[in-house]
Amino acid sequence: MTEPRKKMTLPGLFQKVREGKPITWLTCYDYPTAHMQELAGVDMILVGDSLGMTMLGYDSTLPVTMEDMIRHSAAVRRGSPNAWLVGDMPYMSYQPSVETAIRSAGRFMAEAGCDSIKLEGGVEMADRGEGIVRAGIPAMGHLGLTPQSVSALGGFRLQGKGAAQAKKILDDARALEEAGAFCILLELVPDRLCKLITARARNCIIMSLGSGPHAHGQLLIYHDAFALYPKFKPRMAKVFADAGAVIRAGLEAYVKEVSEKTFPQPENWFGMPDEDYDELLKMLEPSS
Ligand code: KIV
Predict the structure, then answer these.
(1) 3-state class of 16 per DSSP?
(2) Model pTM?
């Protein structure tokens, strides 16, 4: 029998960094997938507000609510008791004020059993991060392509390309680390910028999503890694298994077998002993 997994903790994550072992991180939004990620030994799970697109079919993450996030995060926690669970603060759950941010972060911890939260933005959101950390909640930042600001960023594209843009992201990373963030996700920035930020981080874990190999670990969106999102496949994602094709083939087989009356077979149903059936028929006979 395999050993039960140990609960991943903050010291456990930092120990991996010290030992030069990359941290594994995936998004997840539901109980059965969380169970599989738990069994696979994924270190960290992000219940991303990307669920607005991957699970709810919106065109962006903006319509996602706190209620959506809490419900999905709690389901993921039930499926994976041991991964380090990050709840993603949805649009307008932290931007209005430090107090709003602390209250929303607290809901992820108290109602969903998360281990930490993530918020998007740098210098301008550092006070929200600081307030959350002061409230005793581990907080992480998200820089580069931040989907909640996709309109201002001009679309889903590489960020930090020129020196000035890159310097802004470096400054943002420093501000978040000074605010107490234990971790920063760099999404879709050039590999050299990610390497520089990782080398300069003092007490902060740097994670990469499409930002190259030099961070302390990697994140992928689950639906990209397993070909489950029908609208597009970003270049940064590798398809590790084509689960979408497997499920589609299974669905076609189901439709065919039911249509052709080859499903169900006797092993798929339960019978009734003759004596019970006869007795039932007698009960149905009109009494004379
Ligand atoms: O919502 C999410 O899944 C995210 C990733 C894009 C990093 O924030």
Answers:
(1) helix
(2) 0.95
Rounded to the nearest angstrom, the distance between the alpha carbon of 48 and the centre of ligand 1 is 5
- Site to substitute for ligand 1 among 56, 187, 189, most atoms within 8 A of C-beta: 187
- Residues identified as active-site: 187
DSSP state letters, 184-214: EEEES--HHHHHHHHHH-SS-EEEEESS-S-
Pocket perturbation via mutation, ligand 1, pick of 25, 28, 46 by most ligand atoms within 8 A of CB: 46
**Domain-by-domain residue ranges, the chain?**
10-242, 247-284
CATH for 10-242, options being 3.20.20.60, 3.30.1300.20, 3.60.130.10, 3.40.50.720: 3.20.20.60
Q: What is the pLDDT of residues 3-21, one digit of tens each?
A: 778 999 999 999 999 999 9
Residue-wise pLDDT for 220-231, tens only, equals 999 999 999 999
Give the DSSP H or E segment for 245.
helix 243-259
CA 29 → CA 14, 32, 167, 222, 227, distances in Å? 25, 9, 34, 9, 15
